[in-house]
Amino acid sequence: MRYGRGGMFYKHGCSVALIEDAFVYHKRRATFGKFFRQVFAFGNGRFKLQHIYRDAVRPIHMLPSIFVIYLVSGIILSFISRGIFIIWLGSILAYASIVLIDSVLKNRGIAVGLLSVCATFIMLTGYGSGMLKAIFSKRSTLKKK
Predict the structure, then answer these.
(1) If you count DSSP H runs as helices and E runs as strands, how many of each does the chain have, helices first?
(2) In a 3-state reduction of DSSP, which class is residue 83?
(3) Which residues lie below 8 Å from residue 130, measured CB to CB, with a gap of 6+?
(4) pLDDT, position 1
């Protein structure tokens, strides 16, 4: 099964049940680079599922792509307007601070908090850029036909 298809079983009349003695293997990525590749594939696969399941992409799935566009636009704005760049940077730092504080409070450690900030940005940029790649490769495919 490719990325993202597990949640679509219910569409075809499948049911879900708890098997208390079942073992589930979920591969965790050992490095941030491998984690990025995994979530990139998830984002890419989510958009491709739209061909099979018309409602596979909901507005919530687009948020990481909007985040990527926001990051890139802020970097571009840094060359145009210092004031707008400072506001943009403040919003990014505020978001990172919220993630950091939440993680530190829940996990009782600054190290895990800092890793949570890194993982959050990697997850959002990986998933978002994967979806954007699928969207733009889809458009280029449509133009060729």
Answers:
(1) 4, 0
(2) helix
(3) 39, 40, 41, 42, 43, 44, 45, 46
(4) 45
Distance separating alpha carbons of residues 111 and 47, to the nearest angstrom: 34
Residue-wise burial string across 56-81, b where 16 or more C-beta atoms lie within 10 A, e elsewhere: bbeeebbebbebbeebeebeebeeee
Q: 88-102 pLDDT, tens per residue?
A: 999 999 999 999 999
Greatest C-alpha distance within the chain? 59
pLDDT for 47-100, tens place per residue? 888 777 777 788 899 999 999 999 999 999 999 999 999 999 999 999 999 999
Gap between the Cα atoms of 58 and 70, Å rounded: 19
Cα–Cα separations (whole angstroms), residue 55 to 48, 59, 133, 139: 11, 10, 19, 19
Decide if 93 contacts 117 (C-beta within 8 A): no
The one-letter amino acid at 50: Q
CB proximity list for 40: less than 8 A, separation 6 or greater:
126, 127, 129, 130, 133
